[in-house]
Amino acid sequence: MSDKLESNPQNPTRRKFLSTTGSTAAATLIAAYVPLPANASEEAGVTEASGPTIEGAVPITLRINGKDRQLRVDPRTTLLDCIRESLLLTGTKKGCDHGQCGACTVHVNGRRVVSCLSLALMHDGEEITSIEGLGTPDAMHPMQAAFLACDGYQCGYCTSGQIMSAVALLKEPCGPDDASVKENMSGNICRCGAYPNIVAAIQQARKHA
Amino acid sequence: MHSFEFTRPENAIAAIAVAKQAKTAQQGADIRFVAGGTTLIDLMKLEVETPARLLDINRLPFDKIEQLPDGGLKIGATVRNSDLANHARVQRDYSVLSQAILAGASAQLRNMATTAGNLLQRTRCMYFRDTAMSCNKREPGTGCPAITGSNRSLAILGTSDKCIATNPSDMCVAMAALEAVVHVEGPTGVRTIAFGDFHLLPGSTPQRETVLEPGDLITHVTLPPPRSGSRQVYLKLRDRASYEFALASAAVVMNLSGGTISFVRVALGGVGTKPWRSPEAEAVLTGKPANAGNFRQAAEAALRNAKPQSENKFKIELAKRCLAHALQTAANG
To answer: Is A126 in the same domain as A167?
Structure first.
């Protein structure tokens, strides 16, 4: 989503800053996975993984945001870690890593799931959508636009999970009132407590859906 | 997480042929089936579960809900909890099941969790989930620190001096009240297990949670034909309004004839070491007028054998009021 910003040296992003200052830690983390070329997420079509061989790694094809991506993953790799560390799509966040916070919510075959409690291998050939597949800064999904208009966040860490959950909710059975929205969004925790504005954003997007 | 080998068996026979090599069955076993993964992957991260092999059964043909010739319902092992809760026939004829599932977990988890996985859902007891602590369920013979420790959320029915862990499932409480049947395919063929016989009390072997044997694969659950005119209620009481396990819950299926209870099934959740059907409450109610006095009598009967722990005596009265309220709600229609 912020590719343009990141490529502009006049406009350093938090991610670029962290990835420079934290390069030692990042290298340690990424070594656990088979990394793709840094620009892999830009390439169209099938991307073949390169990098060191990991003992026991298994080949899979993930169809993420409309593109087939071929990877080799350690069987232990969760869908969340695969999306963030192998596919370098860091819009999906790791909160609790135990299915209790909803920050890692993505869509699998159009349904919302917590990607931390699923193995990447279990999704071979399935259709995955992450926040990067929803819209762009120039062409936002109506739910993204509603979160912006209603100020549905503070720190922003839970926001991609909130939005992915809210987009899925549009297609699920859910009563029209705020209480129904709250019940159906209870799997997404916001520690800043931006809940009133999140509910307002979802209701606004539902009205226009 | 420990390393494991991941395979996707072509069919049930192939899955069973591998799984029967396990030393124990399912929960805690070295060879495990995985479907939704919402319990198993979580516990593998905590290294509470350390299987050497995972068999992915998501693509086996167990994902359908089908009408049975007798009017009952067949629910496949890998039907997602959300699909089951939102199924038109379930909502119409077995609404207690729909209510129970929708009262549990979150929308995301219900999209992942499956029928069979929910049957095998493991306890949330914090001592079980923490490998730094002793736990007779996780490591038989090491002791149960929960009995003298933090036990506010733990069980008051069906406990032993070895384990007081609560069964956390909502779905199973409704299935107990609906008298579901669990269908299993194993190394020696197919068999059926009455719901009340499926889960085991902890006794002296809390590591053994069900009657499943190595290689046994749950293929589906069946529900008996619905009882015409039955009133069904699932009431769940918890610390938060949503996305929290029960402190006490009650599933009620009731038929009234005039003002008299002609048929009733009662099960409790959040208080038992297994999904807790209460024949004692049913005996008090059957043939009696549907009134507050009898509902309270039934609740007293259901909790008569309750044994509180140091921090959860409140659950006895909470469960009684929960059941009495659920019965009253059902009677009010």
So the answer is: no
Question: Looking at the partner chain, which of A75, A97, A186 has a beta carbon nearest the beta carbon of B243?
Answer: A186
Res A170: pLDDT? 96
Q: Which of A78, A119, A124 to mutate to test the interface with B (most CBs of B within 10 A)?
A: A119
Q: Predicted ipTM?
A: 0.96
Do B106 and A186 count as a contact with CB atoms less than 8 A apart?
A: yes
Per-residue model confidence (pLDDT) at position A163: 98
pLDDT of amino acid A14: 55
User: Is the residue at B274 inside a domain?
Assistant: yes
Chain A residues with CB under 8 Å of B108 CB are 99, 102, 105, 112-114, 165, 187
Q: Give the range of the structural domain holding residue B269, as residue numbers without chain letter.
A: 231-332
Q: Are residues A100 and A184 in the same domain?
A: no
Q: A165, B54: Cβ pair inside 8 Å? A: no
**List of chain B residues whose C-beta atoms are within 8 Å of the C-beta of residue A102:** 106, 108
Per-residue pLDDT at A7 exceeds 90: no
Does A97 sit within 8 Å of B108, measured CB to CB? Answer: no
- For residue B286, being part of any structural domain is answered with yes
Number of domains in chain B: 2
Residues lower than pLDDT 50 in chain B: none
Q: What share of chain B is helix, strand, coil (3-state, %, to 5)?
A: 30, 20, 50
Asked if residue A18 has pLDDT above 70, the reply is no
Q: Do A187 and B107 touch (CB under 8 A)?
A: yes
CB B90 within 8 A of CB B73: yes
Q: With contacts defined as CB-CB under 8 Å, which chain B residues touch A75? A: 3-6, 54
Cα–Cα distance for residue pair A172/B167, rounded to 1 Å: 29
* Radius of gyration (C-alpha) of chain B in whole angstroms: 19
Domain finish residue from A133, A151, A175? A133
Distance CA(B23)–CA(B47), nearest Å, equals: 18
Q: Final residue of a domain: which of B58, B73, B91?
A: B58
Strand order in the sheet with B231-237: B231-237, B248-257, B260-269, B276-277
- Report chain B residues touching chain A, CB-CB < 8 A: 1, 3-6, 34, 37-38, 41-42, 45, 54, 56, 58, 82, 86, 105-109, 111-112, 241-243
B105·A187 Cβ contact <8 A:
yes
Range of the domain at A185: 142-208
Residues A147 and A125 in one domain: no
Of residues B116, B84, B80, the one with CA closest to residue B97: B84
pLDDT tens digit sequence for A146-164: 999 999 999 999 999 999 9
How many domains is chain A built from? 2
Residue B106 in tokens: 């979150």
The CATH code of the domain that includes B317 is 3.30.390.50
* A138 CB-near residues (< 8 Å, 6+ apart): none
Measured CA to CA, the distance from residue B70 to residue B329 in angstroms comes to 29
Label residue B55 left, alpha or beta by phi (over 0 means left) and psi (-120 to 50 means alpha).
beta
Residue B315 is assigned to a structural domain of this protein: yes
Chain A partners of B111 at a C-beta cutoff of 8 Å? 111-113
Q: Domain holding B20: CATH number?
A: 3.30.43.10
